[in-house]
Design a protein that fits this description.
- The complex is a heterotrimer of chains A (212), B (223) and C (234).
- By secondary structure, chain A is α/β, with parallel strands linked by helices.
- Helix content of chain A is 30%, strand content 27%.
- In chain A, the strands form two sheets. A six-stranded mixed sheet of chain A has the order 6-7-8-3-9-10, sandwiched between helices.
- In chain A, helix 6 links the parallel strand 7 and strand 8.
- Chain A is globular, with a radius of gyration of 17 Å.
- Chain B is 82% helix and 0% strand.
- In chain B, helix 2 runs antiparallel to helix 3, helix 2 crosses helix 5 and helix 3 packs parallel to helix 6.
- The radius of gyration of chain B is 18 Å and the shape is globular.
- Chain C is mainly alpha-helical.
- Chain C has one domain.
- The chains are: A alpha/beta (212), B mainly alpha (223), C mainly alpha (234).
- At the B-C interface, helix 6, helix 7, helix 8 and helix 9 of B face helix 4 and helix 5 of C.
């Protein structure tokens, strides 16, 4: 087990979003989590990624509650969601190098260009992000998520905006992560695009997670 | 070093946004003009009126800059990525504060000659001391301002709120800045009002101390 | 979470209000009949029996909010957020009383509605900051409301002594340095202070109970989501 959510509860004022959601991610797992719109998938993803504290229950990394060592835990996690989580005013290379250096990655610049090349973006590494199409932006987003070679990858709607090439590239990377023992959580609706790489499917419904 | 990286990143983003810089510069200049007209045409106490003008203009320019500093993080959710790097929140705070100090220092250096000319004040020998006073005030302003801006981020009318929060809280700083600037432009020396330096230093230190304690909580209060 | 506050609270509150109302009655009588009319200012001077205690209560309220803020940041327990929010709101009301009675007294004593002297200025700043607190708190609709409110309560309060001292140095003090009263005036003033503190406690209790009811209702509504017995969707 690498990352585990244990009976996580989250309430926003008078609305319960998560009512005891549990999920275990083990090395080599590629879990696809689906659920209706508004079912709390994004909230769950953010809690798992330590960005949001649960009201009750806990998230454990290697059996240690994440709350105590949040900053260390974050370095083991790669996260991508609907928002790009990038600076629109910087180029992809600058973005990746910045986040890489802040995360304490040695040779951040080299890692950054390697990732950009992997996603076929080398030619655009120094172009302003504002000029990027949706699909290209998504590739930069995924590059950022993979910067620190995470042991757990949490991707919220990662296939949105990707063309066939992008989908293949992403699936290839997920395959590699799986091979090196990392765990991946994919969240979304388009299960078919991830069909080749998914090892397990789950569904978030009524605030809880069930096997799908 | 984290804080230098963050400062560099913020400065790069400021510099690339020509529209923002132009607006900031023009707005500050306009404020100086407005106040000159309000006090003029004959200035009864030019040194005092000029000191008041430059610090009032800087205050409002500062609100714009500080607000922008946080908006940069919120625009595409970059603040989440920042948190996910696991970098020290206080270092992030220091980086942003440093970038803001430099931005405001640039505005100050533009307003200084403008104010000197409009009010016909200023003395070259007093300039080094004036720059130090300016630095002291701007460090305090940026320190507290970065903290408050993070608090008010994402809210509607946050520039208005920031002005409402920052001016009253920093009254000791403003009084000190105006008094010291006035003294320098009046007699060329800060001797009669040198105690105000202590007040400003206390404010600067208090601001940084509060940030050291609270910035991580503010950063994590993200949703 | 129970919809109603515990019994000891409810009983205590009843006695608190009885005490408050009794004290208000007694002190009003004392102000009108026992306190002598001041030689120079005349009856208007008696505003001081409202002005001074409400100023003290305001500072008490914001001090409580500060402590509650620190407690919330340390424990993240809802009750501290409730105490802080209630105290700030009630404190703002008393601060308004100070800001109204002050100029009324000043007009009579110094022939001016306002003057930039330390206490008035600091209270004005106080009023603005805590009014902004209300605006900001009302604008946050998320789980960070407690943290942001706590930080505001802490930061605003911590700054006050410096602001106070600075304005004092900036402009000499016209305001009576400390309230030096003797005999009957002093008695009535002390009685007024006690009255206002008890009254503040009673009002705070009410406001806190409102917060409790709000939170209980929200938790109730949230708990009813996904109730068993609802048809499962495929």
């Amino acid at each position: 087990m690498i990352l585990r959510a244990d009976a996580v509860r989250k309430r926003f004022d008078d609305r319960t979003v998560l009512a005891g959601a549990s999920l275990t991610l083990s090395p080599g797992d590629v879990v696809f989590l689906s659920g209706a719109n508004g079912s709390g998938k994004t909230t769950f993803a953010r809690i798992l990624a330590t960005l949001l504290p649960p009201d009750d229950g806990e998230v454990l990394l290697d059996d240690e509650p994440v709350g105590e060592h949040r900053r260390a835990a974050r370095r083991a996690i790669g996260f991508a969601t609907h928002q790009p989580l990038l600076y629109p005013g910087l180029t992809p290379a600058e973005n990746l190098e910045f986040f890489g250096r802040l995360a304490g990655i040695a040779g951040a610049a080299a890692t950054a260009s390697a990732l950009l090349e992997r996603f076929g973006l080398s030619a655009f590494a120094h172009a302003p992000l504002a000029t990027f199409s949706r699909g290209m932006l998504q590739r930069v987003v995924l590059s950022r998520a993979l910067l620190n070679n995470p042991r757990v990858l949490i991707l919220d709607e990662p296939y949105a905006g990707l063309d066939t090439e992008g989908v293949s590239a992403l699936n290839a990377i997920i395959g590699e992560c799986r091979a090196r023992g990392a765990a991946t959580l994919l969240i979304g609706h388009d299960r078919d695009r991830a069909a080749g790489v998914t090892t397990r499917a789950a569904r978030l419904e009524r605030g809880r997670i069930e096997a799908a | 070093m984290t804080f230098l990286e963050v400062a560099r990143k913020d400065l790069m983003l400021y510099v690339r946004d020509a529209r923002f810089l132009a607006t900031l510069g023009l707005f500050s200049a306009a404020l100086v003009l407005i106040l000159s007209v309000a006090f003029g045409p004959i200035f009864r106490d030019p040194a005092h009126e000029a000191a008041a003008t430059i610090w009032a203009a800087l205050f409002f320019a500062g609100v714009l800059g500080l607000s922008r500093s946080q908006d940069l993080e919120g625009e595409a959710g970059a603040s989440d990525a920042l948190r996910l790097t696991g970098a020290d929140p206080f270092a992030i705070y220091l980086g942003k504060t440093l970038a803001n100090v430099l931005l405001l220092a640039a505005v100050f250096l533009i307003l200084l000659p403008l104010t000197s000319v409009f009010f016909d004040v200023g003395s070259l020998p007093a300039l080094p001391t004036l720059l130090c006073v300016g630095g002291l005030a701007l460090v305090g302003y940026s320190g507290w301002g970065t903290l408050f801006a993070a608090l008010a981020r994402g809210l509607q009318a946050r520039e208005l709120l920031l002005s409402v929060l920052l001016f009253p809280s920093l009254v000791p700083l403003w009084i000190g800045a105006v008094k010291l600037t006035h003294a320098l432009w009046d007699g060329g020396t800060i001797e009669p009002v040198r105690d105000w330096i202590k007040v400003m230093v206390v404010m600067d230190v208090l601001g940084l101390a509060l940030a050291a304690w609270l910035y991580e909580s503010i950063q994590e209060a993200a949703e | 979470m129970n919809r109603n506050v515990p019994d000891w609270w409810r009983n205590g509150a009843k006695w608190l209000w009885i005490a408050a109302l009794a004290l208000i009655g007694i002190s009003l009588l004392a102000i009108i009949f026992r306190a002598p009319v001041e030689a120079v200012m005349g009856p208007v001077q008696k505003i001081v029996y409202i002005h001074v205690p409400s100023a003290i209560v305001t500072l008490l309220a914001f001090g409580i909010a500060f402590a509650a803020g620190v407690a919330y940041l340390a424990t993240k327990q809802w009750i501290w957020d409730a105490v802080g929010a209630a105290s700030c709101e009630v404190g703002l009301v008393f601060a308004t009383v100070v800001m109204i009675t002050g100029p009324l007294w000043a007009r009579s004593a110094w022939n001016t509605w306002w003057t930039w002297e330390p206490r008035l200025t600091t209270f004005f700043i106080l009023w603005i900051l805590y009014a902004a607190y209300q605006v900001i708190r009302a604008s946050i609709r998320s789980s960070s409301k407690g943290t942001i409110s706590a930080i505001m309560a802490v930061v605003f309060f911590v700054n006050l002594p410096i602001v106070w001292k600075s304005v004092e140095w900036w402009r000499g003090s016209l305001h009576p340095r400390s309230v030096t009263m003797t005999g009957e005036m002093r008695q009535v003033l002390l009685l007024s202070m006690l009255t206002w503190i008890v009254f503040f406690a009673a009002v705070l209790e009410r406001r806190l109970r409102l917060e409790w009811a709000r939170e209980a209702a929200a938790r109730d509504a949230a708990a009813r989501a996904f109730e068993p017995g609802e048809a499962r969707r495929a």
